Amino acid sequence: MGFLSEIYLENFRNYTSQKLAFQAGLNIFAGENGHGKSNMLEAVYFLSLLRSFRCKNVQNLKNWKTDSFLINGRIKQDEALDDQLQIQYGEKRVLKINDSSISKSSDFIRRINAVSFTPEDIELIKGSAGARRQFIDITLSQISPSYLRHLLNYNKALKARNTLLRNNEDGKALDQSLFNTYEKMMVESGIIITRERIKLLNQFEDKIRHFTELMFPEGKKLKVIYQSSVFKSNKLEAVKEEVFQQKLDESYTKDLQRGMTQIGPHRDDLFILLQGKSLSSFGSEGQCRLASLVLKMTAAEQLIENDSTGNIVLLIDDVLGELDEQRKTAFLKTIMRGDQVFIACTEIPEYCKSLEYSLYHVTNGVVTQETSE
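User: That's the sequence. What structure does it adopt?
Assistant: Structure tokens below.
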């Protein structure tokens, strides 16, 4: 499989200008906190998914003295073939692959497929339903380009339906033909989104069980259940277009009053249980962190096992400190199955010292490379 062989950052976070070469396998960024280790991992993630794992506002990624930033990455596929990726953000976003401009985000991502492990992952358990939907949507989008297309189509149709509902609130006549067109698009894509999410969670079950055994005390059981705002059953045969359409029809009056669509995949959630109880309500901070780690390990393993998904990059940022040595070793053994692993740390983990790795020292936004013996 391929890997990220080179990256160049210009005015990204605290990097004014930085170029680095990477190897497949393990790459470690070592340095004191606040010097830019996490920023480098964030740049790799952004190159993969055109989003940050730390913030929603892209403007926050620019060096505070500048109006734009640039990320260049080279993906080594084999001895004779490289892909050059470029992202420039200024007044507008410019995407390029091998110097050819790309207009759609969906045509840019999946060149490398990233899973991040960060302290913020606890929001998968304690945060909003949106964080959990985003987690499963990102995983599925990296596995399947068609899923991403349906997700984009659904969100486009949802936005249009909501706009028509709000316009009607202002006394404007509802364009019923246009409304029906967008609603039909919502139903068609929404059914596929729901089915794919349920299928993925079914595929997750054995992996969640395995990683729970590694990360939790013996006998603990972690379970993830899909909660649909439309369908009462999570059986695939129950997820039908006519049922979704009927529920939209029933919800129409309330939707009109509130100016928004209240049911659909955009309102679904994951119900996460430990020993049969809601983890977000009854779990300790430590249990929630371990559960989020299990979910991310499961997603990484799903990508690694998928035949259509290559160039798996795993990014580990400040999640090892709270683990005892047994769990730390179990975690690191699992993530080393990725094509490429980036770890940000103040001290090199003991387990990694026995492996081959490339070491990078980070000081005040400047990275220097040192190869291990």
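The chain has a mean pLDDT of 94.
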